[in-house]
Amino acid sequence: MTWSTSQVGAVPTVAAAHQDSRIRTIAKVVLAFVGMSLFTPAEAAPGDHIRAGDVTVIPSIALGLQYHTNIYRSEVVSTPAADLNVTPGVSATAAGDDHEFSANGEWTLQKYFFVGDNGLNTTLTSGQRLSNLDRIDQFHVGAGADLFKLNKVGLRLSDDLTQRNWVIDSPSANVPYTSQLRNAFSMGLRANPGPALELVPGFGWTYDLYRKPDFSTETVDDTRRLNGRNTFGPKLDAKWAFLPRTALVAHLTYEHNDWNNNTIQSVAGGEVGSQLDIPNSDFVRGLAGIDGRFTEKLFLQAMLGYGVGIFSPGSVDSPEDLDTISVNIGGLDGLLVKAQVKYQLTPKTEATQGSAVSVGYVKDFRSSFFTNYVAMNQVFAQFKGQFDQFEPSLRYELRFEDYEGEVSRNDIVNRLVGGVAWNAADYASVSGNLSWQQRASSLDNVEYDAVGLGIVAKFKY
Fold this sequence. Notes:
Elements: H1 14-39, E1 50-52, E2 55-68, E3 81-95, E4 100-115, H2 126-133, E5 135-147, E6 153-167, E7 173-175, E8 177-194, E9 197-211, E10 214-215, E11 225-243, E12 246-259, E13 263-265, E14 275-277, E15 280-293, E16 298-312, H3 322-325, E17 335-346, E18 355-367, E19 373-384, E20 390-404, E21 409-425, E22 428-441, E23 448-460
Antiparallel strand pairs: 1-2, 2-3, 2-23, 3-4, 4-5, 5-6, 6-8, 7-10, 8-9, 9-11, 11-12, 12-15, 13-14, 15-16, 16-17, 17-18, 18-19, 19-20, 20-21, 21-22, 22-23
């Protein structure tokens, strides 16, 4: 990017005129992206999408049916349930040679029509529990921009807003869900000092809002708000493409986790007690390795690093147990690994994704909303294929989770998901899936075993 150094009142330079031209170009693309339906006629048939110049819009809707064998994720009583769900969505892109904009969103509405009793210890009727399970607040909205792609210096922006819900083991709750609202913003200044080297220093900010279940006995509590967290800090991504399809990559991040409330009321019960202390913290991570395609069929990612997490007991007023909230991240918990091997069985084409198998291992840590942190080890294996109009898939993952802090527990999670999709046309597909998930834990009240069955029809214009 070239900036003019002319003084106020002087004649504009060529660089300034060029800069003004760039700004006008970006403004035109943004206006086209936002107001295309008002100013530009567009025609499309099903599967062709909606196009107006460089702008492409893809509306979609998905209709699903799900069956759950253990809707409340209980260790003792497995309660079956079934729901219908509708997910309207839309994605849009506006791309030019030097700038690219994108936006997408979807909203899921769930209506339960069946829930079992199975001798549950609850005073609520089946109709009341059906109504309590219904959800209309799950959604995702995202937007991004990649600016000045042809220049040696560019700008990347992204923002994602997501609402998610997890059912808890409480059929008597008015709202039997723990919920998380997350907004994640990222900004990076891309620089290409050489033809094969890319550096992206940037900044990230994430806000998480956690909501607790609403129990019928809590008549005084008129809000589900549990806690909020701001996570922010600088980051640096680097990539050196020493081969056309293979690169050395590195990631370095610093994050400060700042909780709105450092003392909350426990909703887990058991040995935890009525008060949970959540200290603020600082995380530093560094990860580097190789990522790319080594042969026509073999892809490899191998990254190794280390991280630390320092917790601040001073952020908690009158802590119940100073030792537990002073547990920092270090030792083997700080070791970071990200490895994956992928083998392409059948090649990709312009019309198909081909078939591939992959195996991988991930070791990482993250902040938790009910204790200091969780250290995770995960292994997985998966197959994704495409044979004519059919796309079979199978994935298994095994995850070890170690929670440290005022709540200390060790979990083992098994998850197996298989399915097949039938692409009936460019604009219509039908898919079915069967899943199994099991959580074993050193705390009995979080253990469960569940099977899910689903079918989804999706239509795109």
